[in-house]
Amino acid sequence: MPTVSAVLKPLLGTAGAAVGVYFCFLALLTIPSLQDHVIYLHRVTLTWFQDANVPEQWGFLRNQVTPFNLKTPDGETLHAWHVLPLETYRKNAAALRAEPVGLCQDIKQSLGFRLLTDDPDARLVLYYHGAAGTLGSGWRPQSYRALSAAAPNAHILAIDYRGFGASTGWPSEAGLLTDALALARFAMDDAHIPPERIVVFGQSLGTGVGVSLTEHLGALDPPVLFAGTVLVAPFADVGLLTKTYKVAGTIPLLSPVAIFPALLAFFNGFIVSKWPVKDKLATHIRRCETRKGAGERGVKYDVTLIHAEDDYDIPWVHSEIVFWHAVNAMRRPEAPSLAFEELEAEKEKLRTGLGAGGWEVEWRGSGGVVREQIVRHGLHDRVMSYPVVSVAVARAFEGA
């Protein structure tokens, strides 16, 4: 009969090896290029055997989606889609079907682009997707379809960031903001859609991109203020995300060392891409609350946070934290900040219960509104295609 030590020795050896491998993994994460692979997962396309220049593969109607390339100010080429709203497509189906298919060499000459620019009532969603994959990956096509039906004339412009899919370059925090700005400038300067007819949509990583875009343009003089911002499965910042995040939903990043705050802070110090979503959103709201001036529209910001309780990639506590920072940014400068627990107690009184659908709460400032909507089901990606998101986009358009 084997002794206790004979049984424990191989088990301890295996455990020690696992710990060693994990710390080697952490050491590798101090290398910026490897960090980028983990944070952005841009080489995991998830559409290896599909051509993103043939959107009909994902069930779209012929030429309902126009694939095109978009140049950035720093010389990168981004692969993009323009998705037509269903009613607009129905009215122009014959002409659209007669156009060439595939990658459009000059988007400005396409019928779809003219249907966007020539419609004085056209709405536009700037779509910033999450980490990994391409424009056609996962639940993104279903999400486009849901959003294109959110309003009778809601168009969608979506990009693959630099380093993703067929886009050139390598992802970085500054680079993705440049990409987001390129898409926004294309919408406003080339398609001539004013910001009050534009809603910014972001999911997961895209919430960081969308908030960075909103904050950057809102800081200009005069400010560029969109109709609204809809953030699905947002994260507070990368530092907080490392406590819970698992690569591909399975491999823990820094959660095993989170029980040692000093050790977690040490490893977080090596992270290059910070993505401070909570801070940038708070800065934007605070700026909108304090800015005065003739001619400014009454509602300067309309932000909706949507998160599923069963999201195992980014826990919904991140939305709670982002909402907390947003609410404190609405308060007068001389007013004391609300503690997290104080706000949670207030939310218990204010929130609307939706039964199996979850709950929502709305907080208004003098310059705008922030909503938090927590649904019971939807995981990390599937929720993008849910009606709660389409309604949030439609509400932002209506409010503007």
Written account of the structure:
The protein is α/β, with parallel strands linked by helices. It folds into two domains: 4-30; 43-236 and 273-293 and 312-399, Rossmann fold (3-Layer(aba) Sandwich). It contains 14 helices and twelve strands. The protein has helices spanning 4-28, 32-40, 86-91, 93-98, 111-117, 140-148, 173-190, 205-218, 238-241, 261-268, 277-290, 317-330, 340-350, 387-399; strands spanning 65-71, 77-83, 123-128, 154-159, 198-203, 228-232, 246-247, 251-252, 301-308, 352-353, 359-364, 368-375. The strands form two sheets. Strands 1-2-4-3-5-6-9-12-11-10 form a ten-stranded mixed β-sheet, sandwiched between helices. Strands 7-8 form a two-stranded antiparallel ribbon. A hairpin with a 3-residue loop joins strand 7 (246-247) and strand 8. Helix 11 (277-290) packs parallel to helix 12 (317-330). The mean pLDDT is 91. This is Alpha/beta-hydrolase. Keywords: Membrane, Transmembrane, Transmembrane helix. Residues 150-244 form the Serine aminopeptidase S33 domain. The chain crosses the membrane at residues 12-34, 253-277. It comes from Pseudovirgaria hyperparasitica.
Question: Which features would summarize this protein structure in a list?
Answer:
single chain; 400 residues; alpha/beta; Rossmann fold; 10-stranded mixed sheet; two-stranded antiparallel ribbon; 14 helices; globular; AB_hydrolase_fold; transmembrane; membrane; transmembrane helix
